[in-house]
Amino acid sequence: AIAEGQVIIARKCVGISDQCSNQEVREKNNGLINTVNNNYGYGFLVVVAYPLEGLPIGLVNHLLSIDPSAEFMVVVTAHYREIKVSEAQWVKRGTLLGYGGSTGNSSGPHLHFEVRISSKILLELGAKCDQWSCPGIEGFQKLPHINPNILLEWY
Fold it and tell me: Which of 123, 8, 151, 153 has the alpha carbon at shortest distance from 76?
């Protein structure tokens, strides 16, 4: 974690093994690769919402220049082989979210990292998933992306 925030999604793959491989997803879903079974390609996924008031003022000003109604910075990390946090858990800088891997739609071990901004109360994004849909993932995918390199100036 990069600051104090709340885990809104901490999710393994559903209805398939913990390998969560592309081949296994294709076999289960008639050739489709990005499905709810592998969290739409993200594999083992952790999403943390950081309230703006806990972030460095320069970063907050930058985020507000993009979206004046922003209340949260949302960081999406994916392809873990093991997740070490749980949904609704508060984390602080330095908290281990999980161990890197290659789950989901991945060609090799790496950490997928996205930064998004939101003006919504984010706990609704952690809505429970089933084998047919995942409102939480579908919700954060609609949030605007920002370039994650902006974090380098403050962290």
Answer: 8
One-letter amino acid of 53: E
Cα–Cα dist 109/1, whole Å: 20
- The arithmetic mean of pLDDT across residues 19-35, rounded, is 82
How deeply is 24 buried, as exposed, middle or buried, from its count of CB atoms within 10 A (0-12, 13-18, 19+)? middle
> Strands, E, within 12-152: which ranges?
44-51, 72-80, 82-83, 90-91, 98-99, 112-118, 145-146
Residues of the chain above pLDDT 90, percent:
50
In angstroms, the CA 92 to CA 81 distance is 21
